[in-house]
């Protein structure tokens, strides 16, 4: 099972062709792709067109789903953010620390297209999906 970050889903739904969206396309239907509350919100909030919103909502509802943010993830996200700051790394978006922490705690690989996760991979042990 893998988690796909909103950075990849948004490009995927916008028809952007890149190594990450190609990898997602190759994984769909072959591997279990997990959807979580934080990512679902980030992806769906960007749709301006109602028909496209409903289509994406239906497609994403087919994926296994888990709530991502609870007390344990919130507290560990705080610790991870602070640990990174002490190492001179500032993550641009708090939500990325939450997503990365969820993956670390649950040993779930992350497919992403966001440099914030690179530091979590190098410094916190986040497992990422290889796109090569």
What's the structural domain tally? 1
Per DSSP, the total helix count is: 7
Q: What would you call the structural class?
A: alpha/beta
Oligomer: single chain
Order of helices and strands: EHHEHHEHHEH
Provide the fold topology.
Elements: E1 2-4, H1 6-13, H2 19-27, E2 33-36, H3 37-44, H4 50-61, E3 65-66, H5 71-86, H6 94-106, E4 110-111, H7 116-124
Parallel strand pairs: 1-2, 1-4, 2-3
General description of the model:
By secondary structure, this protein is of the alpha/beta class. The chain has one domain: Rossmann fold (3-Layer(aba) Sandwich), CATH 3.40.50.1010. The protein is 57% helix and 8% strand. The chain contains 7 helices and 4 strands. Strands 3-2-1-4 form a 4-stranded parallel sheet. The longest helix has 16 residues. The protein is globular, with a radius of gyration of 15 Å. The chain starts with a strand and ends in an 8-residue tail after the last helix.
Question: What's the quick description here?
Answer:
The protein is an alpha/beta fold and 132 residues long. The protein has seven helices and four strands.
Descriptive labels:
132 residues; alpha/beta; Rossmann fold; 4-stranded parallel β-sheet; 4 strands
């Amino acid at each position: 099972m893998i988690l796909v970050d909103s950075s990849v889903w948004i490009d995927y739904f916008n028809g952007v062709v890149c190594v990450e969206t190609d990898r997602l396309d190759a994984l769909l239907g072959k591997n279990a792709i997990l959807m979580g509350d934080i990512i679902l919100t980030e992806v769906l909030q960007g749709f301006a067109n109602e028909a496209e919103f409903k289509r994406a909502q239906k497609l994403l509802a087919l994926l296994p789903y888990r709530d991502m943010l609870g007390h344990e993830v919130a507290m560990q996200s705080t610790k991870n953010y602070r640990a990174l700051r002490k190492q001179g790394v500032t993550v641009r978006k708090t939500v990325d620390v939450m997503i990365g922490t969820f993956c670390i705690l649950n040993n779930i690989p992350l497919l992403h297209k966001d440099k914030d996760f690179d530091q979590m991979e190098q410094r916190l042990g986040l497992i990422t999906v290889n796109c090569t």
